[in-house]
Amino acid sequence: MPLTPTVRLKFLSIYMREARLRAGVEPREVAKLLGRDTTRVTKMEKGREGLTPGDAKMLLDRYDVHTDEQKSEIVDLARTRSQRGRWSGHRSIVPLQQRPYYDFEVDSDLIQHYGIEMVPGLLQTEDYMRAALARHFRTESFSVDDIVATRLERQEVLFRQRPAEAAFVLSESCLRRMFGGNLIMHAQLGHLEQLSRRRNVRIQVLPFDSAVSGGTPFSFTMLRVPAPTSAPPLNMVYVENLHDADYLDGDVEVADYSTAWSRLTADALGLEQSRRFIHGVAQQYA
């Protein structure tokens, strides 16, 4: 599966920064070589700005990267096509700060999500989506149909030929928070129960009466994106708030969230217990 432009740029930035650090080259020298200021070099090394293949090759020569195979792989990443048109049509409603996440998600082979208030988008039925969205978008500036189409498109990551492995820990409030009435909630929880039986989907419930050691007051998602080369995969954490979104890929940050995730899965009900719990709540909506 070809990588999305966002993910190609991210891996390019990682490899170029690692090569620069190994060579002991300062950002100001890179800026001089490229004819840019150091701010733009920083953006390039964070995956927010690209490089031409020629500039990438020139920098790799300066960084003493002489292995033809490695150099070829990195230069090829610099041939990232423009995303023009990628966010047109129904995708145009996706906020700018969330667009990179959509690309990281579609290229992931492992998705781990902790949800605290509502069923996460990857697990929602269309009726549940519409009921939830109706609370937030009441003006003509947003098209609920476009948002639903985009969200359903995202769900393909669970059903494609080589689906991502996906694990979810859901607070009981995700099952109790009412969107759209009993009929919609009953169908939504039935959908969760069905999805939990897929080989690539794991759903655990964190009941209100659980002794929680690793709970966090906000949702988060951890992603693992396979590298386009023989290098290790990219592990990252996505945390979203009202006005912005953070993409964390530092070793310490990822390790901290991995620890929190391990505690959450330990505190939550087991897979079969969670399935029975979901079924029981669904019956209350019947």
Automatic annotation (TrEMBL):
UniProt name for this protein: Plasmid maintenance system antidote protein VapI
User: Where does the record place a coiled coil?
Assistant: none
Q: What is the lineage of its organism?
A: Bacteria, Bacillati, Actinomycetota, Actinomycetes, Pseudonocardiales
Checking SMART domains in the record gives: HTH_XRE
**Origin organism of this chain?**
Saccharothrix violaceirubra
Pfam families assigned to the protein according to its UniProt record, in alphabetical order: DUF5753, HTH_31
The organism's place on the tree of life at top rank: Bacteria
Q: Name one GO molecular function term.
A: DNA binding
HTH cro/C1-type domain: residues covered: 16-70
